[in-house]
Amino acid sequence: MSNKKTGNVLFQQANEAYFDDEFEQSESLYTQAIAADSTVGDYYLKRAQVRSKLGNTSGASSDARKASDLTANKSDQLRQYFKALYLHGKWAFELKQYDEAAESLRKAATINPSHEEVKALLEKTEPLTTPAPEPQAEPKAEGTEPARPKVRHEWYQTDDFVILEVFIKRVQKDAAAVEFGGRAVSLSVKMATGSENNYDFDPLQHNIVASESTFEVLSTKIEIRLKKAQPGVKWSHLEQTDEDQAAKSLSQLGSSRKGVSWDTIAADAEKEAKLKPSEQGVNELFQSIYRDADPDTRRAMMKSYVESNGTSLSTDWSSVGKGPVETLPPTDTFAKPYSS
Known about the structure:
340 residues; alpha+beta
């Protein structure tokens, strides 16, 4: 029997023990189910409720937090996610862990704004949280761009929205402004001291619908709701990473009018027999370099060759990946623009 099947069998047995009020046995069986398969959020959520019955509030809170982590960003487990957030917030409050409680309750309130128990508990919790210090911009070196001011922010998503929470307390509603772009969002906040801080998230990992994106200033945070341009697409990061940029560059190369496959060149050695001896040596060298290269070196070779219109070939992705590669024609010649 596989671990998943074993876990499910133990989970069912634990449920039966729970309904028979055999809480200690039920906790033991849930623990065995988790040992068999620790990827199921519902196992932790049910054990959390049993531990609460047994008076183990700390263990219950920890399990609820784990359950929320495992069910986050899964549309088919939204009910379990909401329940895990609410229970974690409730038990963290009982343990006087007010910052943790508020964090989970805010997320639960976003999922179900009309839930009275969540709203009431959040109102009790927020005044007890630790005041966030006013964000300070890091000093910049001469001739460099100013660094983004440090501020705690978190994000999560549904099928239709990415919700960005920027935790700055006691901001006046008319003191915050948000600008939405096709793939960027900019937040400007005027602080009570008179200073103004700007937070730019650019570029975002995917496109958004600016006209349907909104923001709201709350007592402990600024909540920004980004409407996904492609509903249902899961974001793995809030902002575009270097890996995303590399993938985009390769995609663009694939559709280029002068696209080249060095894999094909490396595999088609028979054609080299028709080349002059000097040409054979050069191409064999390129084939050998490409065949034995790591992924970044291959990306650099493809990108530099295509974008330079065959006038440049580089193996340094750290340099090539920063932007377009210029065409470098031979001395005393010039590059003629292509026209279709």
